Amino acid sequence: GILDRIAANNGDTVQTGDLLAVVNIAPAAGDTRTTAKQPGAEKVSAAPDPDSPDADPVLTPAVRRLIKETQIDPDEITGTGKDGRIQKSDVLAYLDTQKTKVREPVSAESPAPVSNQEISAQARPEQRVPMTRLRSRIAERLLQAQQNAAILTTFNEIDLYAADTLRKRYRDAFEKQHAAKLGYMSFFVKATVGALKRFPVVNASIGGQDIICHGYYDFGIAPGSAIGLVLR
Q1: Cα 181 vs. chain centroid, distance in angstroms?
Q2: Would you call 188 helix, strand, or coil by DSSP?
Q3: Do residues 87 and 80 touch, judged by C-beta distance below 8 A?
Q4: Residue pair 4/43 in contact by the 8 Å Cβ criterion
Q5: In angstroms, rounded to a whole number, what is the distance separating the alpha carbons of residues 196 and 191?
Q6: What is the DSSP-derived secondary structure letter of residue 34?
Q7: 3-state secondary structure 85-152
Q8: If you count DSSP H runs as helices and E runs as strands, how many of each does the chain have, helices first?
Q9: Strand order in 204-207's β-sheet?
Q10: Model-level pTM?
């Protein structure tokens, strides 16, 4: 068929049954009727040339959703798929490139003065992404389940041989320098930060109708002391 009219724009909130678009059905193969006889067909212009610089890139639903969530311009991404089509791996590679640019040190030539408030905001970056209707409903159901159902804990076994070997190698030197024993908690925190960097959505929170992706990592650890566990 031919897309004749778009009734809902990208980012609009629609309800079930609302009109999204009008599609004119093209004649089947062998049908003697012409496209001109289709309602509204005379309003449709020729399809844009894919090689034209003004043509929009063809995006799969997964790529389109990722671009919308990260709020990036698809024109800045170089596609490696067939006919230059943008793939999900292209978007992820572009995001990694942008993160690398952010981490690059700023030139020390004539640095501009920065206030304490700006420094605090830069040290704890956040990105606010509007939730889709599906994610909003999932969050609502999860909150209801948390309030009305028992919370369980899952245990998974892992091989800590490498961490144990590293701990034994530096245990004595660490205790001599810092007057404290080298435990396993530092390895757990290091592994958790690595996992959160790989899956940033796990390090997100919900604020109203938005998902807030945090660019920092906070941990609550209760170390043992003479008076018991103390949350730090």
Answers
A1: 38
A2: helix
A3: yes
A4: yes
A5: 9
A6: -
A7: CCCHHHHHHHHHHHHHHHHCCCCCCCCCCCCHHHHHHHHCCEEEEECCHHHHHHHHHHHHHHHHCCCC
A8: 6, 7
A9: 126-130, 210-214, 204-207
A10: 0.40
Residue with tokens 């049954």: 17
Helices 88-103 and 61-70, axial angle in degrees (round to 10): 20
Model confidence over 98-139: pLDDT tens digits? 766 544 444 444 445 555 555 455 678 888 878 777 777 777
Is pLDDT of 194 > 90? yes
pLDDT tens by residue, 56-99: 556 788 888 888 877 788 888 888 877 778 888 888 888 877 76
From residue 84, alpha-carbon distances to 56, 98, 156, 194 in Å are: 12, 21, 42, 33
Helix (H) or strand (E) holding 15: none
Averaged pLDDT for residues 13-19 = 85
Q: Do 20 and 8 contact (CB within 8 A), yes or no?
A: yes
Element containing residue 208 per DSSP (H, E): none
> For the stretch 36-63, what's the b/e string if a residue is b when 16 or more beta carbons lie within 10 angstroms of its beta carbon?
eebeeeeeeeeeeeeeeeeeebebeeeb
Q: One-letter amino acid identity for 203?
A: N
The residue type found at 121 is A
- What is the Cα–Cα distance from 213 to 207, expressed in whole angstroms? 10
Q: Which residues pair with 127 in a beta bridge?
A: 213
Q: Tokens 């109203």 belong to which residue?
A: 208
Distance from C-alpha of 104 to C-alpha of 77, rounded to nearest angstrom: 20
Rg (CA), the chain: 27
